Amino acid sequence: MTKAFTWGTFSLIHDGHKEFLQSIKSICDEIHIILIPEIEVFRNKNYIPADWSTRRTNLQKLGLASHIHYDSYNLGLKSLLQFKPDFFVIGYDQKTVWEERLVSFLVDNDLNTKMVYSKEFAQGIHCAQFRESGQSPLCTSKLTTQHVVTTGNASDSHPIFLGANL
């Protein structure tokens, strides 16, 4: 059973999220989503998203997630330790210091998890665009784009190109 993890706020579900999760589904049997707690979203993005339960319900409506975890660095990333994912998929807009911390966490805990770097989906649609305009979409956009990612082991310094479909 192949398991892939990803994480995020998922404060407003849109087609970019849907395409992103569908692409993950193409490489695994189970998709695990770490849904970041509100307090940590506020600390990092300076806004308070919908509560965890609402965001979880909206993700469940997509029918793509096998498991949705309430987890974070501050909570110890226990879901990663418990489920030992084969892949961890980083969204195109998530390449920050958090990614470096994640790689260190995976290596320090001897998790043989491959990092997968997503390309842009739905022409770069982003929740911030909807927050700023006051909209609350649930997969209402009609934009599509190519599904391409690169992948490499967490300890590799050079990711490998995987192909046109995850």
Alpha-beta content class? alpha/beta
Strand content: 15-25%
**Please, how many domains?**
1
The biggest sheet, with number of strands, parallel, antiparallel or mixed sense and barrel status, is: 7 strands, mixed
The helix count comes to 6
- Strand line-up in the sheet with most strands: 3-2-1-4-5-6-7
According to CATH, the homologous superfamily is HUPs
Mean pLDDT score, rounded?
74
Topology, number of strands: 7
What is the N-to-C succession of helices and strands? EHEHHEHEHEHEE
**Span of the ends, CA to CA:** 17 Å
- The radius of gyration computed from the alpha-carbon positions, rounded to a whole number of angstroms, is 15 Å
- Residue stretches low in confidence (pLDDT < 50, at least 5 long) are 122-132, 136-166
